[in-house]
From TrEMBL:
Keywords: Signal. The keyword Signal applies. InterPro entries: DUF4892 (IPR032608). Residues 1-27 form the signal peptide. Pfam families: DUF4892. This is DUF4892 domain-containing protein.
Amino acid sequence: MNYPLSLRALMASLLLLLSASSSGSEAAASEQSSAGPLLKIILELDGFPHAEQVQYSSETVLDYEVGLGAMQKQMGDWQFKRSERLDADVLRYTWQIIDGFTSSELYDNLLKQVEQLPQSERLFICEARACGNGAQWANRVFRQRLLYGRADAQRYAVYRVNTEPGYWLLAYASARSADRQYLHVELLRLAPQLEE
C-alpha cells in the first residue's frame, strides 16, 4: 500500500518505539536517537516524488542471512560467497523509480547519506556482474521478482551502524529498462544478544 508520508513515518516510528518501550523510557530514548538518522534517510526517500513505493513490510526474523559477498553457484546450489546470519526486526521498502530518474541515482544518494553518519561502517559493496546472478538476488534473496534486471545495472551494499542497539542497512538497486528501475532497502534492528 502507498500511504501518505506522515502515516508511513508514524508507522515506522511506532514500530521502533514499541520494540524499545519494554526496556524503559531511557532505553526508548536511546533507541529513537540511534535509529532516527537511518529512519529519516529512508522516510525522505519514501517521500521523494519520483519514487513510488511498491512494497513495504516489517517483521521479526530469526537467523536472517545477510549477503556479504556475491551470489555464486556451489555444488549446484546458489549461495553467497560470504554471509552472516542475524536475529533482527526488519523494515523492508521497495520503490519503483519513475519520471526519468534512475535507481542508481537514488542508490548513490542513499549511500552518501549513510556514509556520513557517525559510526557507520561499510561491510560489503558490489556492482554489476561482480554481485553475481541478478535473478538469484531478486527471487532467492529478496523474494521479489520485480527486482530482477540487467546484470550490468545491479548494485548492492551493506552497512552496519554501531549504535545501541545495532543496525544494519541493506540497499539493492536494479534496472530492467528505463521504465523499470527499482530500489530496495532493508533496515535491520539487531536483537539484543547479537549486538557487538
